[in-house]
Design a protein that fits this description.
The protein has one domain: Muramoyl-pentapeptide Carboxypeptidase, domain 2 (2-Layer Sandwich). The chain is about 30% helix and about 15% strand. The protein contains six helices and seven strands, in the order αβαββαβααβαββ. Strand 6 and strand 7 form a beta hairpin. The protein is globular. The N and C termini lie far apart (about 45 Å).
Length: about 220
């Protein structure tokens, strides 16, 4: 396994651009999430030092999704509002070059395959069809406690984790139910990561945020 990880890391380091894929794919239409619904909250960790790398990798604190995924996200958000919650987004579309940076920088290496996408294959974030998020309390605006923190590379991050408080597990499960009702699927190792059902229809992108016009 160690040799396999080392080999993948070497190949990823030599890769100069996104992997070539066989199409056809839908035309990309990345939209800025808060332009679709300004009541969704943002905490774009990768534009700050508050992330597992300890440094910013985004020049702008923005979040995008392909339009169908963004519209489904808004529906999930509005369904949660009736329960006294809203969605707080950590990350959406992620340029492929950032995924490569994550792979090359992630430690410990034995956790890399489980928690970090291999740039040789690309990420569903690279397609604009994955979102990292949590809940906020609509009354206070504060982030709701979950069984683990965001980007915590431990078993507490698993959606199936049975530890922690009952309240935190209930919040995690409420988030999952709202997202699944709108066509998203949770990633088995990260309660905060959801993939939109149409992700296979979009190609891998490496467009920096600065080049994406608001719409």
């Amino acid at each position: 396994m160690i040799l396999l990880v080392a080999g993948w890391a070497l190949l990823a380091g030599c890769q100069s651009g996104p992997p070539r894929e066989a199409g056809p794919f839908r035309t990309s239409e990345l939209v800025e999430i808060i332009k679709v619904d300004p009541s969704i909250h943002l905490d774009i960790r990768y534009a700050t030092t508050n992330n597992f790398l300890g440094r910013p990798v985004y020049a702008q604190a923005r979040a995008f999704l392909q339009r169908p995924a963004a519209e489904a996200l808004v529906r999930a958000h509005r369904s949660l509002q009736s329960r006294g919650y809203g969605l707080l987004v950590f990350d959406g579309y992620r340029p492929w070059s950032v995924t490569r940076t994550f792979w090359e920088s992630a430690t410990p290496e034995q956790r890399r395959i489980e928690f970090v996408a291999n740039p040789r294959k690309g990420s569903r974030h690279n397609r604009g069809c994955a979102v990292d998020l949590t809940l906020f309390d609509a009354r206070t605006g504060q982030e709701v406690p979950m069984p683990s923190g965001y980007d915590e590379f431990t078993e507490r991050a698993f959606p199936s984790y049975t530890g922690g408080t009952a309240e935190a597990r209930a919040a995690r499960d409420l988030l999952r139910a709202a997202m699944e009702a709108e066509g998203f699927t949770v990633y088995p190792a990260e309660w905060w990561h959801f993939d939109f059902q149409d992700w296979r229809h979009y190609g891998i992108l490496d467009e920096p945020f600065e080049r994406i016009a608001p719409r």
